[in-house]
Design a protein that fits this description.
Layout: H1 2-5, H2 20-40, H3 50-56, H4 59-69, H5 73-91, H6 97-101
Helix pairs in contact: 2-3, 2-5, 4-5
């Protein structure tokens, strides 16, 4: 499911590129700037509520994620709230969005990046 959330491209054919950095930027622009800064930064992670995430995530993206993961939208929200802060924190050990921009869904060898 993490891989679905951090997908580098929207499968709708819109050509919307992204990946982890785009996902975090979307949440940031959706009103979670303080949260995302804490996850990327080196200090404590600000926790997220289901309501906050629902208000920040694009509904089309939520639907796409739930379809890919084979879960209901509510199950996706609950899962993302529980692990998203830690996943972003661990993916940015240097406290920089640059770390997220360097992550791809699959490594050149075809192995998963460890976040699926």
């Amino acid at each position: 499911m993490v891989k679905s959330f951090f997908s580098p491209e929207d499968e709708s054919g819109s050509g919307k590129a992204g990946g982890p950095a785009r996902a975090v930027e979307q949440l940031k622009s959706g009103g979670l700037e303080e949260h995302t800064k804490s996850w990327v930064g080196t200090g404590p992670n600000k926790q997220l509520t289901e309501e906050e995430l629902r208000g920040a995530i694009d509904q089309a993206d939520l639907k796409r994620i739930s379809q890919r993961a084979g879960m209901s939208e509510q199950e996706v929200i609950v899962a993302l709230v529980s692990f998203l802060p830690e996943v972003v924190d661990k993916a940015t050990p240097n406290g920089s969005m640059k770390d997220l921009r360097n992550i791809s869904s699959d490594t050149p060898s075809g192995r998963s990046s460890g976040m699926s």
